[in-house]
Design goal:
309 residues, alpha/beta, Rossmann fold, seven-stranded mixed sheet, 7 strands, 22% strand
């Protein structure tokens, strides 16, 4: 059996179902929806930084002419709709798609409060969606996704590109430093930091490689967001940190209690613990209309030409 080609290897990697800190059932995301929307509505640092990230993404896309009055936009895995509402501020229309009905409800409410009348939201599993039957094929000038499992697997990625008549854009973490997480791992478990497990960080280079070998011309750019947060050092934070930092088999009550004890011991007088982090987001933008055949490494030019049908 011959070894896989670069393209076959990239497809195999993209089809690998990575399991991060979150489980991805509709029930799980419905349960998280209220907390996610509440944190974005709170008058605090986290909410302001969420707004800053949305504004930075929109500025980048507007700079590329992708959110103008003649543009129709879709956001896959839209969550509580912050990107959708911001995109709709200047685009002709914006559609938010999410697995969770509750996320969609929060997005709808937020868009209504922002006075957006050119938006729509649909709750569906994009992994199994029939984009042609839904009338989405070739309907959008930009199909966007940010830190979402919605486009995991080749079928979903192909559906994303089928929806676009021009551009697609995916954003994910590429690097994240977090001093609180590093200290928990070191002082509670005697381990080093887990840089490679930043949410979807492996997707950046894997998506670039896949798109390249498919013949597209992906463009990359980055956005950096350092931040400081004061977090209540309660049991809820301990549960969250255990989910993010530990593999499933180690998320035991004993280990969660160990994290909670660390948080209490390092909290300020007001019961809050300081989290300092530095997040780097990677953006990949590509035009689905521009595609070329890539040569197979090791073949002579005329051998590559013979591959064409």
């Amino acid at each position: 059996m011959s070894p896989p080609t670069d393209l076959e290897h990239c497809i195999e990697r993209w089809n690998t179902k990575w399991q991060g800190g979150y489980t991805n059932t509709r029930e799980d995301w419905d349960e998280r929806a209220g907390d996610w929307d509440g944190k974005l509505r709170a008058d605090g640092v986290r909410a302001r930084q969420g707004e800053e990230r949305v504004a930075a993404v929109a500025q980048y896309l507007r700079g590329r002419g992708l959110l103008g009055p003649d543009c129709d936009v879709a956001d896959l895995g839209c969550g509580p709709g912050r990107f959708v509402a911001e995109f709709a501020r200047t685009a002709r229309s914006a559609l938010g798609i999410d697995l969770s009905e509750r996320m969609v409800d929060f997005g709808r409410r937020y868009a209504q409060e922002a006075g957006r009348t050119n938006v729509d939201f649909v709750a569906c599993d994009f992994q199994t969606a029939d984009v042609a039957a839904l009338g989405w094929e070739g309907r959008f000038d930009l199909v966007f996704a940010s830190i979402t499992p919605a486009i995991a697997g080749m079928t979903a990625l192909e559906n994303m590109m089928k929806m676009s008549r021009a551009f697609c854009c995916n954003i994910c973490f590429v690097h994240q430093l977090n001093d609180l997480d590093d200290r928990i791992l070191r002082e509670c478990f005697g381990r080093g930091p887990r840089r490679e497990f930043a949410s979807h960080s492996h997707w950046f280079h894997e998506l670039f490689n896949l798109l390249w070998w498919l013949g597209y011309h992906p463009e990359t750019s980055y956005h950096r967001q350092p931040r400081e947060l004061l977090l209540p050092a309660g049991p809820e934070l301990a549960v969250e940190r255990a989910r993010v930092l530990l593999p499933p088999e180690e998320r035991t009550p004993e280990n969660t209690a160990r994290i909670h004890r660390f948080l209490r011991e390092n909290a300020r007088a007001d019961g809050a613990v300081l989290e300092t982090s530095d997040c780097w987001y990677g953006r990949i933008l590509w035009d689905v209309r521009l595609r070329t055949e890539r040569p197979v490494p090791g073949r002579l030019p005329w051998e590559n030409i013979k591959r064409k049908k």
